[in-house]
Amino acid sequence: MATDLAISLDDRTGALADIAETLGSAGINIDGISGSVSGGSPVVHLLVDAAGPARQALADAGFTSVDEQEVVVLDIEDRPGSLGEVSRRIAAAGISLDLVYLATGTRLVLGSSDVDALRSSTSNAS
Q1: Strand ranges (DSSP E) for the chain?
Q2: What's the half-sphere exposure (Cβ side, CA atoms, 13 Å) at 61?
Q3: Distance (Å) of CA 98 to CA 4, 35, 63, 81
Q4: pLDDT tens across 1-56, in order?
Q5: Long-range pairs, 12-16, Cβ under 8 A, ≥24
Q6: Is the model more confident about 71 or about 107?
Q7: 3-class secondary structure, 40
Q8: How is the chain split into domains, by residue range?
Q9: Coil/strand/helix, residue 47
Q10: 88, 91, 118, 119: which has the highest count of C-beta atoms within 10 A?
């Protein structure tokens, strides 16, 4: 199961380096990453396979605001229109997305409050 971890950070220099070093030291690979500032607070989204160990390593390092969400990860072609085709298929199924970013290997990470419907609507997409 692919998992997105959303980590709320203090707005300070080196916070991303701390996360990356913490997970690297724990032997956890970051397969995808996205970050933004919303309402003045930085949030980093990480795609990981080992959610439990990642959460524990982050907690041990003092990161206390970590949310977890099961996500769908799709291989997509790196060409104009690929994202439009996939997202139109999801929209046609009536599914709202609450998360989207790219991961390593031209993979699309998608989150929804209805992950089962999302998975179903994208089962043949790419």
Answers
A1: 3-8, 32-38, 41-48, 66-70, 72-75, 99-103, 107-111
A2: 23
A3: 12, 14, 23, 21
A4: 789 999 988 888 898 999 999 999 999 999 999 998 878 788 999 999 889 999 99
A5: 15/42, 16/44
A6: 71
A7: coil
A8: 3-69, 72-121
A9: strand
A10: 118
Within a 10 A sphere around the Cβ of 26, how many other Cβ atoms? 15
How many angstroms separate the CA atoms of 103 and 121, rounded?
Answer: 20
Q: Give the separation between CA 93 and CA 42, rounded to whole angstroms.
A: 32
Residue 46: Cβ-neighbour burial (10 angstroms; 0-12, 13-18, 19+): buried
> What spatial distance separates the first Cα and last Cα of the chain, rounded to whole Å?
19
Quick one: which H or E segment has residue 115? Answer: helix 115-121
- CATH homologous superfamily of 3-69: VC0802-like (3.30.2130.10)
State the Cα–Cα distance between residues 55 and 22, nearest whole angstrom: 11
pTM over 0.70: yes
